[in-house]
User: Fold these one by one.
Assistant:
Number 1:
Amino acid sequence: MSALFSIACAMAVAACSGSQEGGGNIGFADGQEADPVAVDFPVAYIKRVIPEDEDGDIVQDDIRELITFNVGADLFVRDRASPSAPERNVTEAVTEGAGDIQDLDISWDGTRVVFAMRGPLLEDVDEDEQPTWNIWEYDIVGDVLRRVIVSDITAEAGHDIAPTYLPDGRIVFTSTRQRQSRALLLDEGKPQYAALDEDRDEHAFVLHVMNADGSDVHQVSFNQSHDMDPAVLSNGQVVFSRWDNAVNVNEINLYRMNPDGSALELLYGSNSHATGTEGAEVQFLEPREMPDGRLATLVMPFEPVDFGADVVLIDAENFVENDQPVAVNAGAMSGPAQSKATVNDVRTDGAPSPGGSYSSVFPLFDGTDRLLMSWSQCRLIETEDVDGEMVESIVPCTQERLDSGEAVVAPPIYGLWIYDRETDTQLPVVAPEEGVIYTEIVAAQPRDLPPVLFDGEPGAGLDPVLAEEGVGILDIRSVYDINGVDTAPGGIAALADPAQTTGDERPVRFIRIVKPVSEPDDDVLDIPGTAFGRSGQLRMREILAYAPVEPDGSVRIKVPGNVPFGLELLDARGRRVSPLHRNWLQVRPGGELTCNGCHDPDAGVSHGRQDAFNTVYGGAQTPSVPFPNTQAALFADFGETMAQTRTRISCADDCAALTPSVDLAYEDVWTDSDAAGRTADAPFAYTYSDLETDPPTEASCTTAWSARCRIVINYEAHIHPLWSLPRVTLDADEVTVLADNTCNTCHNPADAMGQPQVPAGQLDLTDGPSPNQADHFNSFRELLFGDNELEVNMGALQDRLVEVGIDPDTGDPIFQTVPVAPSMRVGANASGRFFSRFDAGGSHVGWLSPAELRLLSEWLDIGAQYYNNPFDVPVN
């Protein structure tokens, strides 16, 4: 054992031979004195001062907060992975000891290190004027350090972190630049800005790619929260950690995609978070592929203790979840997909970790099944009375000390180690030091170069016509395929056959494409919480398009490229019948996103991966003939869905069947009346042109849909005017009023003579601000928030009071108000109290038009927001 390591062990009171005392399972290799070289190639690592606040407490960042700065980190290099090899600081000339370093990666030939560096920070300068995180590269052979993006202006245009070399020499990294998303904002008539994550804590980091010289920076992922930790797989794809943070989801999962952003899909983890210690919730960070194809991944809670994590190996090739194999292995493999990378007893539930903890892992590709790791021993602070004076000392964890209930965890002491998985032994590479932590290490070891994946999915190019139009294709085989099960009433084949099923009998008739609204920070626009309406968690939403769902449940339509979107399935009235989409999809311009079907988010299984389930719908079974009892002109190719058949034939002309709409329109193009033995379904449409109030979209979009079309519904501009729109029935003389069904005539606290009255249905739809929230119209609050029942008492309108008991002290009666439930809820089908009045047999039949009911339905379905454009919110 080297003298350096012996000294470090004495300082740390570590067990330096055999196994750790009480908390250890790993063995430290014998004969270390005779093995001065652990690995005969250079290593690069980060050494930093333990970050502390002004009170001396360790600063531990939430893993969802990426714009950090912990002063006192530098990049070091050793020519060999050995404690005896001298180290050199390669960034000190830039950081001056006051910078921060993170996210190391090594080039495929082992000659260069790429990393993120920030600082030093400037004194008396606001945060938005401080240096940003930039991507740097160190040439080990030439001893040259350079910032990849040379231009100061370009480099400081956003925070850039987590760089990784692609096989073609380019660099993929995550950044707040949001290059393509900012450009899209201009198309939407908004200023360019970096959008906040869905918690509105900081600007969202999403994946970008640039050339080796820093040119051609462009965005390739379009999540609304962070995409982190990209790494390249042996097949050339990129694996990364994605923070899914939409609609009741808050988790970090593993995703994969091609380097150009195509073929994006969930890879692993959405239903595997309760796999920490004693079922603790953990997140999946920093995946790196092992030589055997498994992913060495850090697992930790959102707020880890002392930078600590466990390391698990994930068989993501054969599993989409810990106990859910991919379709080809269903019934043959049961899991678990996750296994511990070491024998150490590492806890992830916040309790002291007997086996220490890890902060990074880097697999070696030398045939030895070894890992380079940053590891800290578990240590406790013990206080004892020495000659009447209480003296603190640092001692190793033992089970007895941990069970005492008096254990106080000592500061971490991360050193760098090489772990041999064949023998479960560990050798030091860089000995730990008090007050210092070594947080990452990579080996400058040549590795096999993965294949280069060019634009488009492997084996397929981009459609140049669609790319020029700025759209891609969304193709769904059947919305009735839920988690690999045919859920159609009577089966998909019966639903597709017009002789067996009419349009009215099909539960899903339309699909809605919804886009989240990018929200600016307070420096761009200070958005009050009242702008979001009843369900703030849904934030703001825009609708991109509608399209009919074919009888077999298939969909094939254009969708905007490089735009995050979600899907909603609708009934014949245009009301959502599917759960809210809980993650964001994307498609490249000119590319195609294909799905077998849809997903039940409460089923406990994952669907968002192509090989998770086999399709239950084989499509047309006879080539060159129509589907059963359908029009002969719509002849199918073998395996085609109805949507694929229809769009293929349409594209012989103008591809109209591929183009969605801002309107909901249905036409039965399939039923062959003679073969089906019935007449075709009657056509119907809900169009914005039928509104007498202002439509929530541009006029050009009502005649010709394009990728730039947006439906933006604001309550004051588009919903509230419905209540005052005259709805008067006149006699033949066109003068005499037979009926006045204007909404705010009856739903008014005053009658025609101005005298107080109880609004019809206890619902006030008149103008003016709410007495409960001045930022909202009173009608909005009345519709969506609970209220008190009113009555006219002695000529005045007041809350109705009912006696509920007697005060035992005074004998006086106790009165309470009578609550009134809101007429509407978020979600049109949850708002039956309102819509039932307009249904057949209801009291308000015909008083609102189909187009108006459609507008109300879609507004409720996307969240019943007060505003859906932040720049429409009045500035105080």
Note: The CA atoms of residues 647 and 655 lie 6 Å apart.
Number 2:
Amino acid sequence: MLATQPEFNTDSWPVLTTYDQDHLLRIALPLGGIGTGTVSLGGRGNLRDWELANRPAKGFIPTASGVAPCFVLAAQAEGAPPVTRLLEGPLDASEYEGASGSPVPNHGLPRFRQCSFAAAYPFGQVRLADPDVPLIVRLEAYNPLIPGDAEHSSLPFVQLRYVLHNPTGQPVSAAIAAVLPNFIGADGTAAMSEARANRNTYRQEGDLAGLFLTSDGVPCDAPAWGTLALAVVSPDTVTHRTAWRKVGWGAALLDFWEDFTADGRLDERAAEGTDAPVGSLAVQVEVPPGETRALTFLLAWHFPNRCTWTPAAPSDGSPADSNESRTCGTCGCGDSKPANPDYIGNHYTTRFRDAWDVITTVTPQLPELEAETLTFVNAFLAGDLPHAVREAALFNLSSLRSQTCFRTPDGHFYGWEGCGDKQGCCYGSCTHVWNYEQATAFLFGDLARTMREVEFGHATDARGLMSFRVHLPVERAQEFARAAADGQMGCIMKMYRDWQLSGDEMLLRDLWPHVRRSLEFCWIPGGWDADRDGVMEGCQHNTMDVEYFGPNPQMGIWYLGALRAAEEMAIHLGETAFAAECRDLFMRGSAWLDAHLFNGEYYEHQIWPPERDTDGRPLIAEGLLVGMGTRQLGAPEYQLGAGCLVDQLVGQFMAHVCGLGYLVDPSHVSSTLTSILKYNRRQGFEGHFNCMRSYVLGDESALLMASYPRERPANPFPYFTEVMTGFEYTAAVGMLYEGMTAEGLACIGDIRDRYDGRKRSPFDEAECGHHYARAMASWAAVLALTGFHYSAVTQTLTFAARPGRHFWSNGAAWGTCLIELAGDTRSVTLTVLHGTLPLRRLELSGWGAVETDGVPLAAGETRRLTLQP
């Protein structure tokens, strides 16, 4: 079971969840900035999954001369023999056996016997202890994460601080050695043999001493070409090696170990033609009895050559390569963009010359970056949210920093759906997946708005068809030329949400013609709502990767939400006739869905084969049939039918987030969520048949994608027997919005119980790939429980009326809100911790409101307001 252990000093860093030694195996906490790639902190203190070179690389741990990246402690108490240990906990028994013994890197090095892990993302801590070692060690590892500050949250470095505590009565002489092979050229698919003529250079600059890792042999236009840097901050005594001996049979590791153990220092070795030389730094420190000393290391990287996820087709008409990055044909390390049309680059590498420049730039900012990140995490954890909600919301933010996400040099934000082990999974900022997540908009609103710019300003064609997968470079955005019904409607709702949160009038006016056209696209001949009755009946490709035919709740309610969002935007822009048309379609469509799809318990899908023209051809508009579903249009397969779908109310979920009210009968919403609990929640999967992927097993609990308490199609949509967390969050958050608090929390608790460190990583909720974007729907639970809503357009801030302490964020500013009950009044203490909050009105839902003086609240300001019913 998870444990709460007082050994972690929560006075310095916050702790949300602690994992005991039995729950460490799967932990991998991504360390790195938004769009920069990451290296992950493993549960025992190891660095794993080196995903820095523009692609996912699960399981990749660069190894040369018999060693992988690591840190080693040498310690000697006065009058006692010296002891040397790898700064990692013990291996799990499952890691003992391989073809040649244990397959784990550095398996033969002595380790600490006791280990535990604590996290409050982005902070990860590892505690190491051993009766034979005179020091207790705590590793503190993080990368800055500051909502509303995308630039400082997109830095390509990791801070690793080793805190050494001496519990003995004797002084202890200690040293830590950092070891890093120069793996430039290897990216997790390319082997270490692709590292060619790499070299390490020792540098000392001010309070920094470290190694700069470069390559003279890897082509400078390759995605795996770049630079690395390893440094120690404010060192006492530093020695180094730029290379290890080039000898075989483990002698290089033996030479290092004995050299370091002898006196806590390192002697230089000649590179001797090694293509992947191992660099090492050793830092010495004295730790008096009962006292603590800390050594801070920085790891930085700079890999500029990101290539598009969809390489252009060759000019001779032959098929294009798969949607992996590939080597560029022109050098990507200069100041100009390479001629290769598949090159897109990275935003973060435009800000720094190389990895050493990263180190020297961030070092003076380290105290401030850590303090601001601590302010965010502490404020979030201080809110009155249940543990599972805090963990689901906070830990899933790690997906923003994984290789799922990246930024192009112009600052635009893009994402795969998730990460495969070695390449991105399902390219194109897929609209029907990214519709679900709420973290980006509420924490980094400027990044979210760049996605709207791409979706409407680049990916929507003259007809109003939005390519639900964006080809890159952005000039190719419309090449996919296929529309997803849920994806396109959700983007309209997201446009409304992001305009409301930001008050960005220029964004709305610039994109509105494309937004309006994307809604009118529903009404084209052969379209989703060709008869313009407010109900989608046409060929509806969707997030189940098939086309639905006929009216169904999932697409239908998304459509209702898009109509409401468009109505509100049209009213604001003075297009009253169009707003009235949207209102009319919404009213008629909502009534029809309630009358014809609600079966008394939940909403069903009526399967209607497409109509045909006089020549017998299906009336399906170009771009709607993606071709991943049925081939029998007369009797379509892969349909939902009468199933109880886990996210049939996803459009309503989004409407609540946007403050658009109910889209269908509120009593039907409540009944539907009760039915999802009744029919879809399984507590124990030992007897469950699943013909697809398994994300839940054994005695675990979860919400099924769909259940069939009534009639089931012979061949339903592909994923009906599966479980996927993003969909579960949608249903659970819907329950929270409906006041079904205990039920919603139970469903969120089911998810987090599965990601317990022993079975799965707490920082990797997978669907079609690791770090799946849809799982960031979990942030909406924060909105639902606090009742938070903000409109920068009217400068109105809303919370639920119940007393408590809340964290709030609108994508640019964030802070805390304390609501207290005093007789017939409620007092609200509003604090801004970052950014500026324009505010003219504060509302407590169902209680009352108060007008303010209209003066914006700046960071560091607090305002106390009193409301009466």
Note: Residues 1-6, 314-337 have pLDDT under 50 and may be disordered.
Number 3:
Amino acid sequence: MIQHYFRIAWRNLWKNKAFSLINIAGLAIGLTCCLLMSLYVKYELGYDSFQQKGDRIVRMIMEYSFSGSVNKGNYTSTKVAPVFKRTFPEVEASVRMTQASRVVHYQDKQFNEKRFMFADSSFFDLFSFPLLKGSKSDALSGPNKVVLTASSAERYFGKEDPVGKTIKVGSDETDYQVTGVIADCPSNSQIKYDFLASFSTLGANQEETYWNANYTTFLLLKDAASISALQAKIPGFMKNEMKGEVSGSDYVTFQLEPFKSIHLHSEYSGFEPNNSITYVYIVGAVAILMLLIACFTYINLSTARSMERAKEVGIRKVAGAEKKQVFWQFINESVIITFLSLCLSLALTALVLPAFNNLADRELGLKDLFSPFILLFAFIVMLSISFLAGSYPALILARFQPIKVLKGSFKNTASGLWLRRSLIVFQFVISVFLIIATFIIQNQLHFIQTKDLGYDRDHVLVMPMDGKMMKNIDALKTEFKTVPGVQNIARAVNDPTNILGGYNMRSASMPEETQIMTTANPVDEEFIKTTGIHILAGADFNHQDVLDVMKDSQNQKQYHYILNESAARELGWKKPEDAIGQKMFLGNQRPGYVKAVIRDFHFSSLHNPIKPLVLFNEEWTSTMLVKVSGSHLSQTIDGLQAKWKGMIPHRPFEYHFLDADYDKLYSAELRLGKVLNIFTAIAILLACLGLFGLSAYAIQQRTKEIGIRKVLGASVSNVVTLLSRDFIRLVIVAIVIAFPVAGWVMFKWLQDFTYRIEMSWWMFAIAAFAALFITLFTISFQAIRTALGNPVKSLRTE
């Protein structure tokens, strides 16, 4: 019997090739979208799942308040880890970590390693990274020891055993002993490194202060359930610890953040940018909606052919076929269609997976696609679609009364018409929602990328600096400026897209114990000119200002400060001119005078409001900014590279553009925008297929009516209007439903940005126009063809 079902089903599908192809293609596209997004969701939800002790690990978040200003971040001093390990019985182990960029030399090989991480020897007590060679107890147990990942070991040593060998690290070429080889970090790990060096190398063993917060601290608890108990103890403990250092309402405390929640739930990034659980939910919801659209398209196309199959069913019933036999015959056809769609979908998914990885910035492979979980998921989805999408046409066809069908008096049911129209409305609700969401997101991204930030980020090269370069900085600048196209060269600790340094400040008129939190950035005398920041009052730094802070004695140093408008107001100077020449302190160790006030500019993400900022001169730095003209850019870069190789042989030449740094601040939003662009187009395509099916069905049902109308004098435009009117009404209903839903969702999304666009009526009007245009375009082909048809052909069977 089953073999008979399959033979008839295959014969019928082959007979109606065009219909079968549309159905299989529609389901395959929907399944491909669902599989891709399911892989992404599984990947994100599985972040750090390989960490065996992950449920017992917490990250320390520092929170502190000065003069009512509260700040929080994923940083601590080196004091926190040992103190908490000694003090609280709930803590089993602790580790301090920091990531840096280091130039590594071995023989003739030289690379700038951007994932050079330092960690305590207790690192292996917390994290489940398998050590392939070496001993966990000794690998990081002293200064100048380093463990290499397997790929890094191969890059430097080839097939040689690296353990026991020495590499040179940094501009001072410090010797590091290789003590082990560790497996490469999984791609879905928030901790990624190529070199893992001993934390004691840094010489910052245990500071006596909680303030020098430049490191990341993780704690391993004895019991995952003790997080809340330990958290309750911390405020009281820190209050005792900070006696004499803070007063009044000021405080310092720490919060515990579960390790496995950091990637998707934390507002504080770790060693790599976080994702958002909201975006994962959005992707998951879109996956389900795309699958539903594909199923509804299949139902509508199958129903559109039901009248063609009605006589076949009537004859089979007269010949003795029972309802259940007819039902399972059509379910069997549905299974074949969905199975073929699944096979095609798996092939399509494998084909587009590299492009999807590039779009989502992830590393999904064929082993992920063909994993038992995904294959089982795909098989369950296939069976579900087979029954959900195939059962309605099967039930309708199985219930046909053979006498009515064979006499030609079979009529469509009101319930069936209502369901099909509901499916079309639902498809277009999704499509209109996605059109609105995509349009608003793209407008916000355009706003982000074109907004006047208060500085010039175009044609600015960002290059790394180190201590050896700093010693020869004047000569380097002079040589680099001889390269055609180079306009200005500045140095700074942070480039203007994301300034991070946290400091205290006060004016001379404020009490010493009164401190205001500020962000500050050490720069040189060309930073303002290079970045195009606008000075409102006062004068720019000059070379003498830089020399004034390079004196040997701290007492001889003379500091000069440039404040943004927000910092000047916080210090009590309402007008920029009022601040010029005023004495202030950046911390108690840096007394100086305000030299200028600059216009507020965005030195962090547009998610955040502009806060106080201080620019000051200092002799240490990490970044060089090179402003170029933009014309003959490749020749300018080649000229810089040639100068670099001649003057800076101890490190490789590398650069990136400042606007690329800015785009990185919005990587999650840019990915979401690209994903929505593509899947909105696919959703519209699938909705059009469903609309095509329903319109074909409606026109088929009204063929004789149209013939009679034409005989009675109806014009082509009359017939097209008649056939399109009902579908336009359905789309208008979908628009009415989609508008408030899309408006509410996008309003919530925009609230995450301090600086954002305003939603306007015309954004929704464009979406409505697009939906109506797509509807008319989809229906018009069949409607016009039917209206132009010969009425004699449609009436001659009467």
Note: The mean pLDDT is 84.
Number 4:
Amino acid sequence: MSWMKYFRRARRGADFDQELEAHLAHEADILIARGMNPRSARQAAIRKLGNVAALAEQERDRNTLGALEGAWRDIRYAIRQIRLSPSYAAVVILSIALGTGANTAIFQLLDAVRLRSLPVRAPQELASVSIPKPRRRTGNFTGFPSELTNAMWERIRERQQGFSGMFAWSTDRINLSPAGQARFAQALWVSGDLFRVLDVAPVLGRAFTSADDGSQCSLGAVISYSFWQREFGGNPAVIGQKLTVNTLAMPVLGVAPPQFFGLDAGRRFDVALPLCAERVADGGDDRIDTATDYWLGVMGRLKPGWTVEQASAQLNAIAPGIFQATLPPGQNPKFVSDYLALHLGAEKAATGQSEFRGSYESPLLLLLGASGLVLIIACANLASIALARASAREREIAVRLAIGGGRARVMRQLLAESLVLALIGAAAGLALGGFISEGLARTLGVGVFLDLKLDWRVIAFTSGVAIVACMLFGLAPALRVFRLSGRLAQAAGGRGVAGAREGAAVRRGLAITQIALSLALVTGALLFVGSLRNLMQQDPGFQAEGVNVVLADISGSSIPKARRAQFYLDMLARMQASSAVRAASLVAVTPVGGGTWNMPTQVELPSGARAAAPETYMNEVTAGYFAAMGTRLLSGRGFDATDTLNAPKVAIVNQAFVRQYLKGANPLGARLTKEDQPREAGYEIIGLAADAKYANMREEFHPIAYLDAAQDPNADTEAAYVVRASNSPDAAAQAIKAAAAEMRPQPILDIGSLPARIEQSLTQERLMARLSAAYGLLAAILAAVGVYGALAYLVTRRKNEIGVRMALGASRGAVVRMVLREAISVAGAGIVIGAALAIGGTRVIEKFLFGITPANPIAIVLASLALAALAMAASYAPARRASSVDPAEALRRE
């Protein structure tokens, strides 16, 4: 076939040479027969045939792909040039590796969080069902995704038409320890059809089916591949072995395949459990039969021919009937009105659903932009270096132009050299990016799982970054080829005044660009660091140091629901009796734990005036809470032993409650009632507490009402305590364990420190501060190097001029001042442009800041001073070199 000639070039070339030689020999033999000598006959035959070399070149072109052959020759030439300049190559490759590595690391995290599809068959066919936001829902929200109740899910499954199969799911934390210290694992509650709809087959045993739902609930577990390896050592005899789930023994039914991590991008499940098992695995406090417990997500696979929009429309059409059928009984009119106004919809779910994605997608996009700016600054530096190298090769390039070399070809060879360096740097950056992304993933918190393996998106992104880097630093020196003249080859020095001025102007512009972009990055870094400092140094309204947070779990016990509250109070009394404990309290909502409990309330003041408190944040605590947390009571009294179950109900409110809802009026003696609660069943406000953070450290102070947990007879199978140590938190932890060991039955404990909880809650802010600071420092260093390169180039190009100036009487100080003026002009221009960029660009990061304005003048001034100082420091060596020029030597060169 004709295309095979491209793969047989050597043989076809040899055949052509033989044919050509045979033709020449035949023509020469004819001339020799006519009496011409062999040498003359050979020459005459060649003249008759024409340009032999041109004929050979034409034949070679017919047997090659010209563009590919030319590109390959350019690449080989580029590799030879790179080998001749190893130091230049090392600087370029290292710079590109750092730039592409930083970009690749952030993009790899984004890819895992946002772009990568679920590892299942045809993920593009999946869609999730939810209540479109924003819609006000009242109830309990637990687990993730907490979109729907079980009653809603069952009606949706019965009435939907757009899905060939559907399943419900939720995430949870389960305890694997039968007693003593808790040992937690990540659970995935699933309906029976999940594995069938996703087409995920277990590697061992079996998965759940629809037969495992309902009244014939199968109390078994399907474990993940990683959990199987970690907990059972990959033992193939794991099927049938017992696994403790919240003190309930369940047999292992199957092992999921290694690539299936679940449906929550950013978190990997350990144990999958059937939804129906939730009734017995949570100590009888099941969420299945509670109509106001939002704890499920619903997904399905669309039928052939159905779109997400069509499925959403059908779900919205059946929504009124579903919400009417699932309306919880005994609710007030407002609840009924809000509930019946809810809608249903569907959206694409190829990438799953992710709690982690909502927290980190925007910060990662912002960091990707910052790393892109660092790459641009690095490329500007490399362009400056490449210009200097091209200047040193001007004579070589001019000679090539003078002997007939095409400008386009020379330019292509220079770009090929840049491309080879960029690709090598990108390969190193790809490896570096994987290492950095693994490290960043570890800093995001315990339990975070991101699938960081390379895929085509990461490779394509890094390759694209490499090509952009190649164009950014390779195009400027390549374009200079069009302005070079072949007559330059005739000059002894190969330099011209115009070329020197042009090169200096380009390098000056690059240095100004670097300073401007660096100023924007350094300003952003100062803002993020300042924001983190504000978060860490603010007064949260409590003293976290020395406080332990304790979770006590009795889900596996047989304690009747009516006796749980007293059980927890008895355990609290045992803790308080220890000398290692200064104060302790039961608490419904643990501080800075992310959980919230709020509801509308009404307040009636002693004067008879009434005030609405539409969003009151609630908490139930006992008498020692304010002492344990170090929160001040400003007036009135705290809870005490007289506030028993049968005593009048009492409450304590905080300053934000008084400020926001009572307009500063004295709250003592006022009566607080929950929404539609009779006045006589309400709570007398007996105290005013100082403001304190509730769910997280970033929030403003919420209006909070504290109720006495000792007056609430209801309790769940898990309770929380805050315990302040007398001296050592470790000693207090031992006292807590001893108190639990005396209880019958013995609860399972999880003990952590409040400072560690606060630190974990600031993971995102710490990540932003650290990475932005690293980017800002790197950008500032690169900008300083750029200023140094521009001034060093200036001094080198104007060395003769400086020598002549000094020969004519200019002092060394005047020469130094000349170089410093250039540095000041470059730094000043960059700072002015950078300040404008910082003022405009910092608006993008406003929502990530705390206690600091985006266009902060102090941050901009500090960044400007830092970069000006670096520019001055970078100008010292070129200025000193300029002042040491020997005038006599300069005159001799002239």
Note: Residues 497-537 form the longest helix (41 residues).
